[in-house]
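Table S2 (continued). Query chain:
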Amino acid sequence: MKQSFKLLGQRSMRNRSPIMIFHRPEAGDRKPMSANKKKTSLSRRNFIARSSTALVPLILGTGCSSNVTGPDESEPTEPPASEPTPPPEDQVDVIVVGGGLSGLVAAYELVRAGHDVRVLEASNKIGGRAQTLREPFDDGLIAETGPARIPPSHDLTLGYIDHFGIETSPFYTQEGEYLVVNDQGVRQRQTPAAFLSGGRDAWLKIPAGIDALPTAFAEALGDRVQTGLPVTKVVRDENGVAATYGSAAKELRGGKLICTVPLPVIDKIEFDPVLSASKQAAIEATSYQDVTRVYVQYAQRIWEDDGLNGWGLTFAEGYSEFWHPTWNQAGPRGILMSYMFGELARRTAATSPSAIVPGFIGRFNALFPGTREVAEHGTHFAWEHQPWIGAAFANYNPPFSEHPELASPEGPIHFAGEHASGHRGWMQGALESGLRAAREIDGAVTEQRSRATVAISRRQMVRRIAGIPNMPGWLVP
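Corresponding output:
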């Protein structure tokens, strides 16, 4: 969800309560979702054997183009003659705390490497901030609450999308005019070429919803992923780690643990022993961006009658974007969405919920006259109100490079999440950090796979963005 413009407003992690430092997949592998979306059961040994030649490897790098060398086309290895004895129900090789993209990709690659992994997610949904909104919209219309845009240079994101057979489409429309409103309320129309300069015309989206990606990971992992089970305590000792989770305070032991919890809510976990002073200082120094989005559904897309496509920017009352996320979804209905940051986002989130949508029906009517008459209903979403996440994404200032301790292991505990990467606010950063944490746990396997493709072949990427003038240089044949 990171933007290409300067962020307005941020929330510091300082003045928080002290951080105290005080798992294993179930059986039941499933084949990763393919283009035809068929699901078949897959034994653990076949899952591991098949994955040795799968398109997406566990990589050594951080998603840079220099690692893109084409898919591994070696023959599958013969599976073992018999299943290994399953470990005790309360013992796994690796516990993953958090079912967002960083946790899911780490679990997925570690399972493919032969590890017994369990993912414990606090909320009732997997995906973290990769959530698609379907209610209360009609006619199958959807909109995104978090990440939505995929730059063509994000090889890990697009690679796993291709790996699971998920379709993409252009994010921005090339039809109609974009609208820009300055801080004085003066309106200016812009052509797609002008508005989408800098390569944004090549950005993509998942038309089925961004949650298709975490869903694909979760389906592949099967019942190794468990939701509604917040981890409340993590204890490390000479035997590894023990995680206390759920309302029943059950304990799960593991040799390693990956913590992917967003920093605004990491103090909900008691760590024993406490996290290092340098880790705590890095957490306190990291600020987060607040984001609120408001959505209004309309019976007709009447803004198109005026030659406008429903997209644009406004600097009135603070910077915000407005999107028409349903521009290539079947009509006549459509959704307009306001995307707000910083103080404007916090002010909107603090408004009485019953007043938010009516207020934005009026704002959208000022941008697109006549829309008030065809407005039907709407909703809003504020990341600061999500109890297991707490904010939208980590700010770039100060950058991750100034606080690499965010990613440093502490004994058997490893750390991942977009905040612990150089691509903060993007799915690429979540995937990047999850792979890095998995690599820390099983470096030998990643060493063997380092010559395979990062996640995507050049041929697939060129096919995906063929004809787009702003093709990344590393893809040029």
